[in-house]
Amino acid sequence: MKLKHIVSILPVIGLLVGIPFVNRAEPYILGMPPMMFWVALWTVLTSVTMFIVYKLEKKQESG
Amino acid sequence: MNIALIIIFFFLLISIYLGIRSRKGKDMELEQWSVGGRGFGTVFVFLLMAGETFTTFTFLGGSGWAYGNGIAALYIICYGCLMFILSYWILPVIWKYGKDKSLVSQADFFAHKYKSTGIGVVVSLVGIIALIPYLTLQLKGLGLIVSVASNGSISYNTAIWIGLISVIVYVTLSGVHGSAWTSVIKDILILLVVVFLGVYLPIHYYGGFESMFKAIETADPGFLTLKGNGLSVSWFISSALVSALGAYMWPHSFGAAYTAKNPDVFKKNAIVLPLYELILLFAFMVGFAAILQIPNLKDTDMALLALSKASFPPWFLGVIGGAGLLTALVPGSLILMSTATLISKNLYKPFKKSASDREINIVAKSLVPIVGLIAAYFTFNGGGAIVQLLLMGYGLITQVFPSFVFSLMKRNPVTKVGAGAGILVGVLIIAYTTITGITIGQIFPAIPQAIKDINVGIYALLANVVVTLIVSALTKRVNQNGLSQKTESTGKTAIK
Question: Sorted alphabetically, which keywords does the UniProt record give (chain A) (predicted)?
Fold first, then answer.
């Protein structure tokens, strides 16, 4: 298993670990309940993670 | 003729025009018709993949889920993101194999990998059984949105016929090119409409998002958190995982992977598509906004339409109706085309081996109106059976995932009989639990609540994998014994 594979699994771990922690009614963040805010943030982080995976792969191909 | 009607017809005519015009300058042989000649770039593949996310479900189901089930609706965004992570790794593999072997359908992939037309037939049948209810769902959604948005000027049945005939015309003529081009206008329109509704309605009725959520929490404490049982944390995570595993096993999603001109397209899309999922948050906001404004809706799927009707003038309802129409036409066209391709290539061809590519092409296009009429029949007369099939859809389609993963291994431990047996067992478990309504908790009442709440699709997948491996081990042994006997008689050694 290479670094790019490990990095791409991080969002899955983030989901498994994060959801139980944010399953509460307060505090509101940017007007959203904690779980909604976490899912929105996690979605953005997933996109960033896949960008890093893509760059790692390109670096590996050129190197 | 009212203004909403004019606007809805305007969008319908644009979609038909784009759908038909997209075939210009192309010879519509099967590969061009069903997989776009494997020449789509990042934008078109993005739109085809996003088209899967934004169906009539976005309008009705997404907001309806938030209205009826609260924060649990967020699992839909989570499974979308997980499926895009998966797409980064599996779609390039599907694309490369498809290009090397000139494949045009999902069942082609399995038939080639397992060197068995029988497996192709099994995968085709599972796909068709899941796809027809999915198409009827799109048609029902279309009928509902257009009839409500036009304030009854277009009846539910008439709306379905207009939408279905339009999509049959441009799918038959243009295939996947028609779907790709109409999805351009669909995505622009739905983006504008859903984001506007999701921002405007909470501000209009509550003064903002936070005050809306506080009002909901006061009225129904616990609605904005997952429950201790039922829609719990373990249900949430397991449902997101099982839905993500099955997402690209839908024949029309799997087939869309063949359309790209190179595998890099999927990798770029896997970066951008999770951000696109955030649009669903705005659909959920509409559902949340409707909870206290239009309480006690019998049909929660009506949340967005009911609140919009109470909030906007007819011309804007026409825009919503136009967007709703397009969200049904694009996925509907992909489903129609995939089903026709599956039947012609993987059910007709195995029984008429002499059929030429030209004949298969003609059969596929001829099947489009027939499949459309079958879907229309179920839409108007389906009743409970079609609802049951729809509930099973994701569970059914996910059952081909283990055989798919095994087929990617350098030394595939699974035989064609093992793959077929695993799929069959998984499908039977899903069918039995859906039809009888029985749960794991009822079968094993002593197990912890968190395990009871795990999505039944996970258990079906586990059983599927176990049966696949056991049957494969047994049939491999039988095959080897058979080969040994043969080689003994010829005096040669076949097994190293």
Answer: Membrane, Transmembrane, Transmembrane helix
